[in-house]
Write a structure and sequence with these properties.
The protein is an alpha+beta fold. The protein folds into two domains: 36 residues, no CATH class; 134 residues, Alpha-Beta Complex (Nucleoside Triphosphate Pyrophosphohydrolase), CATH 3.90.79. Helices cover 18% and strands 42% of the residues. It contains three helices and twelve strands. The strands form three sheets. Strands 4, 5, 6, 7, 9, 10 and 12 form a seven-stranded mixed sheet that branches. A three-stranded antiparallel sheet has the order 1-2-3, with no helix packed on it. A two-stranded antiparallel sheet has the order 8-11. The protein is elongated.
Length: 182
Amino acid sequence: MTEPAPWKLVEREELQDCAVFKVARLHARSPRSGAVHPFYGITAEDWVNVVAVTPQDEVVMVRQWRHGSQSVTLEIPGGIIDPGETPAAAAARELREETGYGGGTLEPLGSANPNPALFANRVYTFVARGVIPQGAIANESTEETAAVLVPRAELAAKLEREEIDHALVMAALLRFFLAERP
C-alpha cells in the first residue's frame, strides 16, 4: 500500500484570535490533482493532563463547569502550558491549582494530538503517584473546580456510564490503564 503524499501549503490566512486559540484558513495543493483547496485549522498552545493517585489508591479528579457542553464535567486536572514552562512543571502546577493536591512522583505517559484534522498542538499526559493535599484550590478567575476523589477501581465503570466523557481525559485514562497493566 502506498502512503498518501503530503499536501503543499500555499497560503495561511489568520481569521480569528479567540484568546485560547486562533482559527486560520489554509489553502493547500493536492499532490494528486494539483488543485488548491481551502481547509481550516486551529492553533492552540500545548497543554497537559494529570492522572493523580493518592496513597489510598484514589484518583484526584475535578468537577467543573464547561461552557461548550453547558454542563458540569468530571475530569482530571489539566491546562495550558505557560510560555517557557516544561510540560512536567505545567502538570505539577495545574494539579496544585485545580485540586490543592501535590507532591509525590510525576511520570510522563506520552502525548497526543487532540484532533489532527484541525489542531497542530499536543496534550501531554502525566501520572502523579502519592499525591497529598497541600493547600487550598487556587483557580484562575475564569475557572472554578472542586476536587473529587474517585477510587481507582471505579474509573472503568464511570467511563462505561459516561460519567467521564471528555475525550482527552478518556485518552489519558487509557494511557494510565496501559501503564498500570502487569
